[in-house]
Amino acid sequence: MTLSRRNFLKGSVATAIAANGLTLFPAGKVFASDTITIPSATHYGPFKAVVKGGTLIGVQPINDVDPFPTEMLTKGVLSRTYSDTRIKYPMVRKSLLEDPLGNHNPHLRGKEPFVRVDWDTAIALTAFCIARTVEKHGNEAVFSSSYGGWSHCGVNRPQTLQGRFFNLIGGQSICAGDYSAGASEVILPHVIGDMEVYSPQTAWEIVEKNTEVVLFIGCDPWKTNRVEFRVADHSMQKHWEAFKEKGIKFVSINPQQTQTDKAVGSEMINIRPNTDTALFTAMSYHLYKTGQHDKAYIDKYTVGFDKYLAYLIGDEDGVVKTPEWAEEITGLPAAKIKELAELCVTKRTQIAAGWALQRADHGEMIHWSIINFAAIAGKIGKPGEGAGFSWHYGNGGMPASGKRMPIGLSQGRNPITKTCPVVMVSDMLKNPGKAYTRDGSNLTLPKAKLIYNAGNNLLSHQQDTNELIKALNDNIDTIICHEPWWCATAKYSDIVLPTTTTLERDDISSGGTYSNNKIYAMRQVIEPVGESLDDYEIFSRLAFMFNVHKEFTEGKTMYQHVKASYEASDATDDFKTFWQNGITHVSTPAVANSFVRHGDFYADPIKNPLHTPSGKIELYSSTIAGFKANSCPPMPQWIPPFEWLGNAKKGQVHVLSPHPWMRLHSQMANADVNSYESVDGRQIVLINKQDAAERGVKDGDVVEVYNDRGVLLAGARITDEAMPGVIYIHEGAWLQLDSKGRCNSGSINMLTSSQPTSGLAQATSANTCLAYFKKCTDAETPNQAYTPAKVVKSDFKVDIWSLQLGKRLKAVAAENGPEQSPGEKLFYGSCTLCHAAPHPSDFTYKQWKGITNSMFPRAGLNEKDRKLVLEFLQENAKKG
After folding, report:
1. CA triple 377-378-379, angle to 5 deg
2. Any transmembrane segments, and where (predicted)?
3. In 236-333, where does DSSP find H-type helix?
């Protein structure tokens, strides 16, 4: 029997849960014969689902694998599975349903009710909208906003399956880059030969033996390692605790004291947001001025010091970059800047910089300035020293197995080459075909008319929400959404296809972004809620409509694909054993415990050059200079952001939007654990005591935060852990607008700007944001973001024949592309599984050689396959 919310609520198990609260079952608990446990896994960790009578009643963590399971796993997963916000049936916005060939009234998105339809009607309307768009405007007009893969931790993620389907019918325009590390993933391959932000870090053992100082810069591993792109196992904390026990000194540069800082006892240095580049510029100058720079290291391992030095001493602009100069910018005393520089150069120092720093105006500059400082101090490549940009993610520091992990279904080659940087979505909608630059290439934005969204909450993640909504309503004919819950993106869509959650489908995943030492079975735990279908089934049905079903499915069920994926990995257990146990371990060679980031380069830069044009660390980049990209100089420079405390008007504060403690972006916002993030149902805003007192705000008050871009209401949490002049609103709250256009839920992107970092990366500058705040006295209603959309009955029946589907689908049938080489097949089959498939021309061959060092193990390729992929990339990479 298909489980519905109504049937669930009638059951005695649900009644007990409602009366007594959820139960956390200890790992060793033995259950009665009517209760079973099923192994599975999520972004929040591996677990055994406790199921009674077909109903999930609890989650049992696996403590020998995950020593610190979070409440997102133990409570949140169950809570959101049976949330009232579940979308149980296919839904179509009333205007589209009643006049599919005519005016869909896009201005009514988010306001007009939906009508429940059957799956045949939903698939027919979806196919019609796709076919009509392609027929009138070409495949470029179908735009995928499904850039990320965070909705599901398995290898067969919604956006991958979407890419697979659309690439079989002529392609789709896609997003480029990501919100997480968009600036650095473009600039750092030019500087140090790899993205760095997605690269393994020096092994824990090396740090423990060698490091004397860890310098956190906007980095909070205790929080950000609570979730994983694949499966979190929370193996990081014990290592940081061991570092503290050993006596390693921790220093934290951050406007706020973090949970990590509390755990390891960091010395706090509160800095003005967006000014870290000025700090490290002055620290580099101080080392040079006092003769503490490592001239031998600079000569052997870097290029461009002469040009960078000219900037430091003011030859370029007449401004000497002294600590006194930086004091005026950062708010830090010059004496402290000198002390910090000397601490780093005299002690074996490991710099751990977070990604949040570069989500700011001119974000390309900050990580580069840290690299320059670390190189001038002679640190990079030495055991337990240097600069790392992924310590806070994927248990950075875990030794890597180097073994092949399972991979999912290939997206294949996308015939459409048009891309849009994620931060430029609104710009693309308002200015279709607009010319722009990215990473030295001259490009044009897609001309989108249909948005297809699977596995991404666009209305939550995109900056400047008001701008986005207007751009969607003014320019997009149709928005189609795959979604389990009534989040804002679903509510603002035209066709909503209800998808299963992780617990209602089979898949496979692996543990450790870098360690790659575990493979997890993601077994289906319960039957789909309502009439929801998994994304594979939805795209299979669409593929049937477009006559590519055989190519999409290869004649296999998802279970068969999962089995084949496992058997192609380096796992040693047979599949039956693995599937029964839910986990298999993959051995890690002992030598991995001695890994040093860039250690080979340090040992022999001639034999092991970096994948930069010079083979060395580029303190100044001639390549970047040649790009002449707007607002991106060829070396790290302090450039005042468009908004910061240095140009704030009276009463304005800097607004930062870090990751939440009990959510994964907007996931878990509808679960009971979100109470940790909220006051009376609204997102919390952390406010310094002084700022709150000046505005008459008390703890628990509803606060109105506003600027020229928008307004939100949030719940005040008064603290002395945040510096004056800076407030914090965690990203990911769902959107709900009141009659005045204010977000009644506290969604941060009502305030953030969609202005890109520069003409180089075109990345997000969300952390460059000023706003005012005051006590709110006119909140209209409680937060209604976590209530379902309004659904009405309609007697209207779609005349499927009037859609002329046969004619339309035949007219847009894709032609077979050119025969693919073995390397091309492997690239599109194995290396396109995380975000939207990259194009070979996105990077130079040298850059690809650096990037694939981290990519190949997760792509499941052996040495022979890797060679074929590199041959394909060498032939098709960006020239230069």
Report:
1. 95
2. none
3. 237-246, 259-264, 276-289, 295-301, 305-312, 323-330
Helix (H) or strand (E) holding 807: helix 805-811
- Structure tokens, 722: 């945040």
Q: Report the distance separating Cα 825 and Cα 871, nearest Å.
A: 12
Cα(575)–Cα(559) distance, integer angstroms: 11
Instruction: Give the pair of three-digit tokens for residue 242.
Output: 């061991």
Query: For the chain, what is the largest distance between any 2 Cα atoms, rounded to a whole number of angstroms?
Result: 82
* First CA to last CA distance, the chain: 60
Of 337, 755, 398, residue with least CA distance to 595: 398
pLDDT single digits (tens) 427-438:
999 999 999 999
How remote is the C-alpha of 516 from its chain's centroid?
Answer: 19
In angstroms, rounded to a whole number, what is the distance separating the alpha carbons of residues 507 and 11?
Answer: 29
pLDDT class for 533, splitting at 50, 70, 90?
A: very high
The packing angle between helices 863-876 and 822-830, to 10°, is 100
Residues in the chain: 880
pLDDT at site 437: 97
Distance CA 848, CA 195 (A): 10
How far is the CA of 133 from the CAs of 94, 126, 142, 387, 649, in angstroms?
20, 11, 7, 48, 46
φ, ψ of residue 541 in degrees (nearest 5): -65, -40
- Helix or strand run (H / E) with residue 635: none
Alpha-carbon distance values, 19 to 15, 187, 501, 698 (Å): 6, 54, 25, 34
Q: State which amino acid sits at residue 239.
A: H
Q: Scanning the structure block, which residue is given the tokens 């040992």?
A: 603
CA dihedral of 116, 119, 123, 129, whole degrees rounded to 10: -10
d(C-alpha 783, C-alpha 85), whole Å: 14
pLDDT digits (tens, 9 = 90+) for 832-857: 545 555 678 878 888 887 777 767 76
3-state secondary structure 155-181: CCCHHHHHHHHHHHCCCCEEEECCCCC
Q: What is the DSSP string of 298-317?
A: HHHHEE-HHHHHHHHTTTTT
Residue pair 773/431 in contact by the 8 Å Cβ criterion: no
CA distance 657 to 444: 30
Reply yes or no on whether the pLDDT at 30 is more than 80. Answer: no
* 179 contacts 363 by C-beta, under 8 angstroms: no
The model's pTM is 0.93
Residue 669 to residue 651: CA distance in whole angstroms: 30
Give the pLDDT score at 6. Answer: 35
For residue 151, give every residue at least 6 positions away whose Cβ sits within 8 Å of its Cβ, in sequence order, or none: 157, 158, 454, 455, 456, 667
3-state secondary structure of 789: coil
**What is the C-alpha separation between 504 and 322, in angstroms, rounded?**
59
509, 834 contact by CB (below 8 A)? no
Q: Percent of the chain having pLDDT more than 70? A: 94
Are 709 and 753 contacting, i.e. CB atoms less than 8 angstroms apart?
yes
Tokens of 708: 């020229």
Rounded to whole angstroms, what are the CA distances from 33 to 17, 49, 671?
A: 20, 15, 30
* Amino acid present at 701: D
Nearest to 70 by CA among 265, 237, 204: 237
Residue 488 · residue 515 · CB < 8 Å: no
Any idea what the Cα angle at residue 297 is, between residues 296 and 300, rounded to 5°? 85
Q: Are 471 and 429 in contact (CB under 8 A)?
A: yes
User: Residue 703, CB half-sphere, CA atoms under 13 Å: how many?
Assistant: 33
pLDDT band at 877 (very low <50, low <70, confident <90, very high): confident
Question: pLDDT tens for residues 326-368?
Answer: 999 999 999 999 999 999 999 999 999 999 999 999 999 999 9
Question: How far is Cα 638 from Cα 275, in angstroms, rounded to an integer?
Answer: 8
Q: Are 303 and 620 in contact (CB under 8 A)?
A: yes
36: which strand partners?
51
